[in-house]
Amino acid sequence: MATEENSHPKQAFGNVLQSDRNEDEYSFRISHTSETSHLPPRLSSDYSSPLATSPTRDSSASPYLDPSWDQSHQTSPLSRSPWTSHVENNSTNYSYTGLMGSLVREEGHIYSLAASGDLLYTGSDSKNIRVWKNHKEFSGFKSNSGLVKAIILSGERIFTGHQDGKIRVWKVSGKDPSLYNRIGTLPTLMAYIKTSMKPSNYIQTRRNRNTVWIKHFDAISCLSMSEDQKLLYSASWDKTIKVWRASDSKCLESIKAHDDAVNSIVVGFNGLLFSGSADGTVKIWRKESQGKGTKHFFSQTLLKQECAVTALAVDPSSNYLYCGSSDGLVNFWQGDKLLSHGGVLRGHKLATLCLAAAGNLIFSGSADNNICVWKRDGGEHICLSVLSGHSGPVKCLAVEEEQEQKGGDKQFIVYSGSLDKSVKIWRISSQLVPNQAEVGTSPPQNFPSSNSCRVSQRRK
């Protein structure tokens, strides 16, 4: 791990600046007063996720369900400080490829990430959304709901999806860039009250209770925005996808999408919506105009298998869809060929938990603690390397492109969040040669052999 003890002075979040009495949600700044850090429970509430209970999943392929994956007794000495961050000096050397540093907080497992420019947002099972600027602690905001399962950015707004089935909306203060205010909750209280007036608006949940159709009655697993930023999509373990109008937070639609928990949704090329579920399927939904609004219709099932679908990613520039599943495989389809199946990427020994695509690179994070870097060249895929450094399953990824270098070499900053309670920062070049990249230890060493990574390419 590229860290040094006491490389930065101890810092902690200071006094609460603003609170909402109804939901006990806060926005807060960094202060330099000392504060005692409290360890989270040994077993987070997310361990009771559908991955552990659904008969359609291979639970043996998901070791992150085991409490032994709580690495609190094995964390770096840096974690004794409430906040620790360390980035190697070579972070400013654009020829360097590998691990740049780590962000560590003895606070909770990292479940969600979102990056924009020099800002990084991290969500965990601690109720907090932390904000990092230039890889250093900057600000944060919190909700009383607990686990933060999804974060998505849209202009000046930040949407967060939570374990309690609600979506919170946040916005940075115009007077103080380190202060974030909660400006709404989806569904809104007024919409909830109005909808609850009609008995026909109630649906029966699996717990033999009734609830209004505009509200998720189980954990939100992921969020996605339409290409024009007008629609927000939320998916849940309640098997549904809900469509929200971003301008006024109105719930326009509730799609009964799958027979089990929806684990991932992503808006793709040509306005299509893709959904992946614990029922082992990947489905396509098309948006059509209907009167003054729009409605989504089922188009086709791309994949049907025994293993749970755990992650989806789209490369809109080249019309590729990638799908990770609990058996560790990554399937992909080519959109310019009517979404024909292109092949399978085999790089992980355990469940693939997250995916990200940027340029011609694809990143897959897994319960085996590793991140595979794949390069697409035409229709072919090559496993460039395996990023090793986490001591727990890699749960989420975010990628930002750096300024293009001479010779057309694109550099990407990759953030990986893990159940080891850390976020690691990597610099990856699109011009990497397989097995010859440098890993992020200090001093840099060669990457582990990627002989275990294979591509099963479908030949035409």
From TrEMBL:
WD repeats lie at residues 213-254, 255-285, 302-334, 387-430. Transmembrane segments: none annotated. Residues 45-62, 69-87 have a biased composition (Polar residues). Residues 1-87, 436-460 are annotated as: Disordered. The keyword Chloroplast does not apply. InterPro entries: JINGUBANG-like, WD40/YVTN_repeat-like_dom_sf, WD40_PAC1, WD40_repeat_dom_sf, WD40_rpt. Keywords: Repeat, WD repeat. Gene3D superfamilies: YVTN repeat-like/Quinoprotein amine dehydrogenase. CDD domains: WD40. It holds the Pfam family WD40. It comes from the Eukaryota. This is F-box and wd40 domain protein. It comes from Solanum tuberosum. The lineage of its organism: Eukaryota, Viridiplantae, Streptophyta, Embryophyta, Tracheophyta.
